# Entry
Amino acid sequence: MCGRQPRRTAPRQRRVAVAKAKELPGLVSEFVALAKDYVRQRTIDPARALGRAAGLGFAAAFLFSLAALFLAVAGMRLIVEYLPDGQIWSGFGYILAAIGLLLAIGLVVWRASK
# Structure
């Protein structure tokens, strides 16, 4: 290396872009708008979709329950219709319908738990 000293250079100064005072309100309002849009896209919109799905699920469950109730009443009336006349037989028809409904509920719960 022939006795030459390496040349030392001054470190480069980085230039940082700084907004002017007149630009700050516009930049802050743009930042706030972007932050609101981001929060809306990432949290509020998915929560609304989830709420809509849950609402439809609850509506479907209510309608299925109502249908089961009407079918139970129709089944009870069918059982009572085919039994002989009399108050004892009518009461027996109600008991048979209740047992049948309990069996149906037990079957649904048993299958749902698997």
Notes: The longest helix spans residues 24-82.
